[in-house]
Amino acid sequence: MTSAAEQFAANINFSAFSKATELKKRLWFTLGMLVVYRLGTYIPLPGIDAVVLQDIFARQAGGILGMFDMFAGGALSRMTIFALNIMPYISAAIIMQLMTAVSPRLEQLKKEGESGRRTINQYTRYGTVLITAVQAYGIAVALEGMSSSAGPAVHNPGWFFRFTIVITLVGGTMFLLWLGEQVTQRGVGNGISLIIFAGIVANLPTALVGTLEMGRTGALSTLFIIFLLLMAAGVIAFIIFVERAQRRIVIQYPKRQIGNRMTGGESSHLPLKINTAGVIPPIFASSILLMPITALNFWSGQGPEFLTTIAAYLGRGQPVYLLVYIGMIVFFAFFYTAIVFNPADTADNLKKYGGFVPGIRPGKNTAEFLDRVLTRLTTVGAAYLAAVCLLPEILISRYSVPFYFGGTSLLIVVTVTLDTVGQIQSHLLAHQYEGLIKKAKLRGRRG
User: Fold this and answer.
1) Shortest CA distance to 282 belongs to which of 382, 421, 413?
2) CB 195 within 8 A of CB 37
3) Which of 21, 190, 278, 285 is deepest in the core (most CB within 10 A)?
4) What is the rounded CA–CA span in Å between residue 86 and residue 83?
5) What is the pLDDT of residues 118-160, one digit of tens each?
6) Element housing 185 (H / E)
7) 283/67 Cα distance (integer angstroms)
8) How far is CA 375 from the centre of its chain?
9) 392 in any annotated domain
10) According to the model, what pLDDT value does residue 436 have?
11) How many CB atoms lie within 10 A of CB 236?
12) Whole-number mean pLDDT of the chain?
């Protein structure tokens, strides 16, 4: 049944948007911060030959460097101050979530509410600095060893160059972290997610122009391009449908008599998403799988023969690659779901506040019921993630389709868009309610 709030939100029109001055300020602030981010992706690091670097990245476009460069909006291939983007923070946040599940102290902090959350966020920032420094130093050392037919990638290698790169990249990542927090507080949407979103879609116009150019030259037929666009629209609609889908478990609360009044007795819902793990499984699977592939490509022709054989079997689009990729996505879908949702804790909380699932005894039986439902949902969610991530790989490898969006990036773009649109609707809804309250007060004074 559609709630009154959902019906009210559906009636929000553009006239309401034109009157929501606070929302417009937030949207302009968000846009301004994203422009600042995009400008930073064109400020190069000192001491690096851009021509040599472009040639090196062109050879590694299908590896992990290509994937990170896509998330960074091309900042990594241009080796700019935002080359590492916000990815070290994402890594630190994921590590902290995993540590929370195994560390009693961190688990206790998580249960302390707002103060504990602030402490965990501070630890995450420290972890971000550490991860960024290590990655920046690795990039500096790797750049010193890179060269192409045009010459070496670094003009003056040495400790001063490494120190400069580490300081600049750490400062760039921490500035982006601050920028994301400002967007979250004073703008619209999640700032960190919007930065990743902006990096992914930045090169989309160029990719579309390249696809149309292939159609003009005859490399791709017009009918195939139309089919590709329709299929992309269908995949996006499918992702929206699954991401919005929920299994709502009815929670009943008993009636209680307080004095002469009878309270309680109402029912609510416990929503369980089909894809509880979100985009984490594809990110983990892609990173872990592409890292050895990138290393093998670097060593191609310079090491033992079996390394070349392994690289051939793990090439993108090969059956072994696809099977390992699917297996990793399924594994991380179940693993991360188990981290973020604990049926036993949920059952204990329901029991503490007197809630129960109709027909299920509170406590252990409720935990087993939730675990069973979550396992079935995760099975469907893992299959959905595997299908969405597998389709672009098949199109790229089998039909040479210039498919810019991979499964991971497509999921990120759609989910961030849904979240941002939802927040915009919430602001409009709040503005509508404020207007109604003001009108009611004026009528009350006149009466």
Assistant:
1) 382
2) yes
3) 285
4) 9
5) 888 899 999 999 999 998 898 888 888 777 777 788 888 889 9
6) helix 159-186
7) 10
8) 23
9) no
10) 59
11) 16
12) 80
Phi/psi of residue 356, each to 5°?
-155, 155
The label of the residue with tokens 């983007």 reads 85
Q: Which residue has the tokens 């329901």?
A: 350
Tokens (6 digits) for 34 = 């994203």
d(CA 192, CA 183): 8
In terms of DSSP H, where are the helices of 46-158? 50-59, 64-71, 87-102, 104-111, 114-145
CATH number for the domain including 96?
1.10.3370.10
pLDDT at 428 over 60: yes
Residue 380 lies in a domain: no
Tokens of 172: 């760039």
Give residue 53's domain range: 20-202
Return the SS3 of 151.
Answer: strand
- Neighbouring residues of 232: CB distance < 8 A, sequence distance ≥ 6: 405
Cα separation, 191 vs 176, whole angstroms: 9
User: How many angstroms separate the CA atoms of 255 and 30, rounded?
Assistant: 47
- In what helix (H) or strand (E) does residue 247 lie, and over which residues does it extend? strand 246-252
| Within a domain: 114 | yes
Token pair in block for residue 120:
């965990």
What pTM does this model have?
0.79
Q: Which two tokens stand for residue 222?
A: 């017009």
Q: Are 170 and 130 spatial neighbours (Cβ–Cβ below 8 Å)?
A: no
* Beta bridge partners of residue 258, listed in sequence order: 261
DSSP designation for 249? E
CB 202 within 8 A of CB 38: yes
Q: Report the greatest alpha carbon distance in the chain.
A: 91
What size, in residues, is the chain? 447
Q: Which DSSP category does 123 fall into? A: H
For residue 231, is it within any domain? Answer: no
Name the band, by pLDDT with cuts 50, 70 and 90, for residue 111: confident
CA distances 158 to 29, 54, 75, Å, are: 41, 22, 23
Q: Lowest-pLDDT range, 59-63, 276-280, 303-307?
A: 59-63
For residue 168, the model assigns a pLDDT of 94
Domain count, the chain: 1
Give me the residues paired with residue 62 across strands: none
pLDDT, tens digit, 9 for 90 and up, residues 45-82: 888 887 777 777 766 655 556 667 777 777 778 888 99
In contact, 285 and 328? CB cutoff 8 Å: yes
Neighbours of 261 (CB within 10 A): 7
